Amino acid sequence: MAQPATLDPSRADDGVLRVRLAGDWLLANPLPTLEPVLDEIRGATPPRRVEFEAAGLGRWDTALPTALVAIRRAAEAAGVPVSDQQVPPGAQRLLELSFAVKERADARRALVHRTLAEQVGEASLRIWAALLDLVSFIGVCAQSLGRMARGKATYQRSDLLVAIQEAGAESLPIVSLISFLIGMIFAFVGVRQLEQFGAGIYVADLVAVAMVREMAPIMTAIIMAGRTGAAYAAGLGTMKVNEEIDALSSMGVNPIDFLVLPRLVALIVMLPLLALYGSLLGILGGAAVSLVMLDVSFVQYVAQTADSMELSSLLGGVFKAFVYGSLVALAGCQQGMACGDSAMAVGQATTRAVVMGIVLIIVSAAILTVIYITLDI
Amino acid sequence: MPGEAHITVSHLTMAYGDFLIQRDLDFSVRRGEVFIVMGGSGCGKTTLLKHMTGLKEPVSGDVLYGGRSFWQASEEEREQAKRQFGVLFQGGALWSSMTLAENVALPLRLYAKLGEAEIRDVTAYKLSLVGLAGFEQYYPAELSGGMRKRAGLARAMALDPEILYFDEPSSGLDPLSARLLDELILELRDSLGTTVVVVSHELASIFAIGDRAVFLDAEAKTQLAVGDPRQLRDSSPDPRVRNFLTRGGTDGQAGAAGVD
Question: Quick one: closest CA in B to A155, which residue?
């Protein structure tokens, strides 16, 4: 059974502070507070010296040297000498060891507590800085695309093809599922509302226009932000941590041309195609619901859909998908290339890539919708 | 021509943001010598390597290759200059999505005018030089740390560079592999005349291969000495340099510095 650890300071008439240590100083034991000793040392009339008495001391572990270090630091700050002759020799040596290497003058960092207002301010500044980073990254990528157009960019064709496969063909299952279900949901809602006016067949218009103009581009883009944008950030971030990007640069290869360009082009090309494909699947989903719930034939439904389609809607949707694809790829690649040098930083870069991608999609969707309405597209 | 300055570091000051790493570094590396950048942990050895290989821009000062400025040059000239050197990074820094053969072949594909069959032969030859014959189709993740490092060396010397940079070549290697790597470094210098710059704090390796060395100090934040490491050990006027090169054993004192 462990004896409770005790700490008992007493000041003698000669001005020496004697600290009696007793009991078992173990981390697993409740430990006494150091305040009485520290208060004596820091008080208005500091002691001449600090001495220890350890006659009653039992077993000890890190708990004892930790307390001694704290007392000695306080004493040093107050200019009071400390004599640790009574302390067990093992603890003495550990104490010496912890004071052997002087603290590096500029190494210590202050723990700064910030008020809420300061935190909000700093967060706002970070958002602004992130925006500036993104804009300058867009500039760098534009230069890179220019080099590609002139045939002067160094990249591997096989990388581009792999990126196209990953962003394109391998995304088909998830895009199919989501688009088909979205089409069905629209049709359900539409059937319920339009049937009341005997206009059930117009569900075809509703589904087709909504899918082609808005839903397919935006849903596909959000899927790709979570799927491909995140993969870009994690992949490039890991390469950064692993010095693979430095290895490219030191070889005279521009890492933007070599790594970012194929990914960027792949997503920009594939997202409009995926959105078109998603529109088709959404229309099929709508058709499936309508055939079951309404008294229409497949041919009627298709004819109605074809009637509602205008070229401008189709091109408008494709253009939106092009914009979203660029933004998702830029967010993913920018966060990956700006990743810090640790495993944790890769995770943060990935999270930021997805959040940034989705925010950019939604903001640009709002802006594009206003522009389309103004231009009457 | 041996003896002439191949790389000159001129009044170089390095910093991360406003945190000064090293200031006023000034030394030159002669053609065909093995030059060591040494110093304690955290003194900025690897950062200096990044400045010499164009990965980080100096706050002030310059690096000259054969008398031509590296950092005052245009982006394009700098890319050109980079092709004359190979770098072996601390962890090898192999491209993890490619096999060893593809890793070594990439610089050849980019800058050498070779056909596929020739590239395959050169790749196999370079891998066999570092003792990795037969590992062409392995991915970096399938190899041990030492093998990755050697594969990194095969890639660094794919184009027979005039200058080879090594970042802590023996760290993470067992003593025997470390010695083999040292011998390989000397062999490359002797047979190809390659100028070699090695960042290291391994004393055994420093004395075994180093012709000359620069000593960086984290406290003084500048270079304390340049010269033959053996001479520096025996007769450097600066006790900090002698202390480092004798593992703190100068002045007859045993044990770690600072214990009294």
Answer: B110
